[in-house]
Specification:
Elements (H helix, E strand, L loop, with lengths): L29 H23 L9 H18 L2 H26 L21 H4 L1 H23 L5 H17 L10 H9 L3 H16 L25 E6 L3 E6 L5 E3 L3 E4 L17 H7 L4 E6 L11 H20 L4 E6 L1 H16 L4 E7 L17 H14 L1 E2 L1 H10 L2 H4 L1 H9 L8 H7 L4 E2 H13 L2 H4 L3 E2 L2 E2 L9 E6 L7 H8 L6 E6 L18 E3 L7 H7 L1 E3 L4 H11 L3 E3 L24
Parallel strand pairs: 4-5, 4-6, 6-7, 7-12, 12-13
Antiparallel strand pairs: 1-2, 2-5, 3-16, 8-9, 10-11, 13-14, 14-15
Amino acid sequence: MTSPQQRQARTDAAPREAAPTETAPAALDIEAMSRNAGQLVEALGRSAARYLKPEGAPGPSTEVGEMVRTLGRVAEAWLSDPNRTLEAQTRLSQEFVNLWGSTYLKLQGQPAAPVAAPEKRDTRFAHPDWSENPYFDFLKQGYLIATRWAEDLVEEADGIDDHTRHKAQFYLRQVTSMLSPSNFLATNPELIRHTLAENGANLVRGLKMYEEDMEAGGGALRVRQTDPSGFEVGRNIAVSPGEVVFRNDLIELIQYAPTTETVFKRPLLIVPPWINKFYILDLNPQKSFIKWMVEQGLTVFCISWVNPDERHADKDFESYMNEGIEAAIDAIAAATGENEVAAAGYCVGGTLLAVTLAMQAATGRRRIASATLLTTQVDFTHAGDLKVFADEEQIRQVEDRMQERGYLEGARMANAFNMLRPNDLIWPYVVNNYIKGKAPSAFDLLYWNSDATRMPAANHSYYLRNCYLENNLAKGKMVLGNVRLDLKRVKVPVFNLATREDHIAPAVSVYKGSKRFGGPVDYVMAGSGHIAGVVNPPAKPKYGFWTGGPVKGKFEEWVAAATEHPGSWWPYWLNWLESQAPERVPARVPGGGALPSLGPAPGTYVRMRS
């Protein structure tokens, strides 16, 4: 689930500023401070009035209820054993006694080693005052001590199942991220200095942005992560030239214009996730995987999924396979004369591609000659943090919600992906936007992330139940069109890419899924996460990759024996693809054959906003 987003590369763009240089002015501008305070009170009144309207008053969130129930089970597990509870309380008390002692030494001007220090990647406490000022240092360390103690309680709780423990860890992360002293004006020295330096004008601007984001979210806060005015699909993102050569209710098929005199005879079909827009693979010319593939001599076709609405409520998983992948292969055959394609699927697009491979193997109608799966899960045993949303009760709640409109709102999926990394994807923007009063800068990846898509009820329900909840594809129990699907019957070559820091499709999950196929699988692990590990162009590679032998034994054993390579995995993949079908033919011009152009890339479906 791409995000979604999914997604780790989005964390690279979270607001991380160097320690600020501004200090409080020698003399405050009392008049400006009073004027800004008045504007702030007025704006707060408007927000409160809007919140208190009967028709707009939000009811209790189902997510909050689930969180309370889950953490309650952990509490019950500890309270059932008074001796262990006392030991845990004593441990926490001792840590705070140590902290009091350390703080006392600091107040006396003496050096003191920290009792609890932030992790190196934690930028929330980078401002010097967090360490130099004993008051803020105490707040920081007290927060870290309490947070780590609570995490240990969840980890060490007896009598709870693995799923409940996983959910508790996830929900605890949301709570502790929210309660960080770095998120509040009164407990963050950087924010205090910033507010005094601006005489409170930052808070007025921030509340104005908060009101705008509440309006944009239809009463629910939609935290802006980027300036959307800086981008336009087809103008400065998704700009690789090509033509839409086929369209139906679910897809537009884009054929990209060649840049070489000859191309590989076998065309390539890209199956992106339907939970995101396809142009993550074509953000800009410097990062575009699609542009790079065209430059290597591939005839590239890419599916652009419709942004569904109530008319698509009954489009199920089988519809997405038949009207999506299979219809695209038919169109490619008409355009190129080739009856077999190489196919590449990204995230849930890869899961759909694997299902299609299993269907073709079961029916004997093989038309995909090789498959590339990018951060794709086919075995959901180790499905990462998104699995916390996929138990029977929560899926039923999602289904009830989808029945109201016929689809799941894209914003809800985007929020779920953001919750995977709240310290990177939520709270830095809350602080930066609403307290510092700074509008976010324009960033293409975050623009794509905010360009959410809806999900039709029938398709999403089938996917959640058969993949996340019941893991039927991996078990050989998935049924589509009265056909039972078994990945062991898939004999075509598979290139299976995982990324090392992926929280959506964990590398161990992708590795386990590699064992489900019946043919040769080249498992490769790239550096970084769900997005940045895939979009890693050879011209400016940020991360390397690992290759190894067959997918046998444990994942840890494969990693220990793997060979590390510097640079992008793209050329390695191209060699794998070329070795299967090296024959070349004259370049094909999109729209010049049996399928006339229906309009220029990137088409019309991608422009449909939620």
